[in-house]
Amino acid sequence: MKKNDDVLNNGILKDDILTDLRIIEKEKVQKIRADFPFFKNNPEIVYLDNAATTQKPYILLEKEKEFLEKYYSNVNRSASKFSFHTTELLDKSRDIISKFINSNFNEIFFTYNATYGLNYLALFLAYNYLKENDEVILTQMEHHSNLLPFTYLSKIFNFKIKIWKLNNNLELDLNDLEKLITPKTKVISITYMSNVLGVVNNIESISNIVKDKGIMLLIDAAQGIVHNEIDTKKIDIDFLVFSAHKLYGPTGLGVVYINKKHFKNLQTKTPAFAGGGIVSKVNIDENLIDIGLLGFPYYFEPGTPAISQIYSFSHVINYLENINYYDYKTYEIKLTKYLVNKLQELGFIELYGYDRNEVSRNRFGIVPFNVKNVHSHDVSTVLDNYGIVIRVGHHCAQLINKKLNVDSTCRVSLAFYNISNEIDTLIQALYQVKKIFKL
């Protein structure tokens, strides 16, 4: 990631934020918005719910349509030239997506979404690696999709769950992790970036702590990959999961990375799910069960994959690469700073995390808040009248709410296509909340 000294100064953003934002918006962001049909078709909507899902570029629509009209067939198991070509397109798409995280072609497999991928890995690890009284470390900032699979499975397989708690800055202290680790610790499963707090965890440092201890590191990158470049060659991790729909891609598609070091003896492991497409032979009778499993990645992909979605998502990845997507990180940080500054000017807003921490490369993009003495759902109802889309509730991360001592929060989540005028509209609508509820 390139650092722009005009935007960042030792990690702290400079004062003249709005001027810088307007320049970047005029030169770059407005062109980006033109690539997304949502903004043309919904000029009255202010979309600030990108942590839930992102809008889709034209290229996704075009390539999905192209595939269904020209190339659609099943893959992998046909001898026809047409179907073989479709398989080649799938393989090429897999290669493009794998390179986005600097992994090898055969180190990723596809699922329905990130939640499914996390469940798959939890079950695979429980079947093959976790024994009674082994320990799995999760964190207090986890999305339920990472928290619940291991928690439920711990009751069946009798391994133990440990929770790495947030400190008073609503961050994870590495010293606390080292205190939690014991010889029985086998897995640490952690989010790359909190979907509530916007905190970016130091995955590289965590990896350095655990890599020589025989502990497997699983990363939920559903939020993190949207805002942070990931290099699986640079950081030693075992497993990583993300979804396409949060990264401007289609729904119904998740991506799972497995470090190739786990390919050894894969044939002796029990797959979490089984079915057509993962076996080379099946011989079963009263006295014999002889099943030969295919290698990676097909071992993990029973049934027909989401072929058209994989194809179209690979073209979204090409689009992101072509516009140097991660160069927009500094813009997102600056836009977050503008939002937080505006919210801090309102005397009736309670911010979480940003009330005690600066916006930085390690905390940005997602901003939770409440209007004092007004329920978040009432706030959302007023904002909806102004065409403003945010998310309210516990955001599938109730352990964070308990730490904050609140039942629900309003969450604004930004993307690289959002602009400062949308923040201004939000602030104006919040003044209406104040007026309506006589604050």
What does this structure look like?
- With 439 residues, the chain is an alpha/beta fold.
- It folds into two domains: 8-34 and 325-436, Alpha-Beta Complex (Aspartate Aminotransferase, domain 1), CATH 3.90.1150; 61-321, Type I PLP-dependent aspartate aminotransferase-like (Major domain) (Aspartate Aminotransferase, domain 2).
- 39% of the residues lie in helices and 17% in strands.
- A seven-stranded mixed sheet has the order 4-10-9-8-7-5-6, sandwiched between helices.
- It starts with 7 loop residues before the first strand and ends with a helix.
- Residues 1-14 have low confidence and may be disordered.
CATH superfamily of the largest domain: Type I PLP-dependent aspartate aminotransferase-like (Major domain)
Broad CATH class of the largest domain: Alpha Beta
**Spatial shape:** globular
Q: Give the strand line-up of the largest sheet.
A: 4-10-9-8-7-5-6
Output the number of helix runs: 14
Helix content: 25-40%
- State the CATH architecture of the largest domain: 3-Layer(aba) Sandwich
Total of domains: 2
Low-confidence stretches: 1-14
Round the Cα radius of gyration to an integer and report it: 23 Å
Topology, please?
Layout lengths: L7 E2 L2 E2 L3 H17 L3 H5 L4 E2 L10 H14 L9 H20 L7 E4 L2 H15 L6 E5 L4 H14 L2 E5 L9 H7 L4 E7 L11 H8 L5 E5 L3 H4 L11 E5 L10 E5 L20 E7 L2 E6 L13 H16 L6 H17 L3 E3 L14 E6 L4 H9 L3 E2 L1 E3 L4 H7 L4 E5 L6 H17 L3
Parallel strand pairs: 3-15, 5-6, 5-7, 7-8, 8-9
Antiparallel strand pairs: 1-2, 4-10, 9-10, 11-12, 13-14, 14-17, 16-17
Helix pairs in contact: 1-11, 3-10, 4-10, 5-6, 11-14
